[in-house]
Structure formats: structure tokens, C-alpha cells
Q: What sequence folds into this?
């Protein structure tokens, strides 16, 4: 399930009117990959803080 920020991040490439579909797909995939790389470390640190 997508979080609100992920959905918002994917909305930009999806509604770019003058952009080729292939470019929209690459932008969406790059957002997902970036989130998969960037989000876990801070999430781990935050979960250790609250425990």
C-alpha cells in the first residue's frame, strides 16, 4: 500500500501532460527506488528511539 507521500510523489510524473509515457514510467520507478533506499535507515533509527 502506498503512503500519502509516495502517492503524492508518483502523481507528478503521472500527470505530466507533455511528457512521453516512457519518461513518466522511469520517473515513477526512480521515485520508488529512491524511497526504498532512503526511507529505511531513518525509520530504523526512529523505531529504536521510541522503544
A:
Amino acid at each position: 500500500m502506498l503512503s500519502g507521500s509516495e502517492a503524492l510523489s508518483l502523481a507528478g510524473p503521472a500527470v505530466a501532460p507533455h511528457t512521453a509515457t516512457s519518461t513518466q514510467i522511469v520517473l515513477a520507478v526512480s521515485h520508488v527506488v529512491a524511497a526504498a533506499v532512503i526511507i529505511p535507515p531513518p525509520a530504523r533509527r526512529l523505531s529504536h528511539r521510541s522503544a
User: Anything to note?
Assistant: The helical segments are 4-15, 21-38, 40-50. The two ends are 25 Å apart (CA to CA). The CA atoms of residues 20 and 38 lie 27 Å apart.
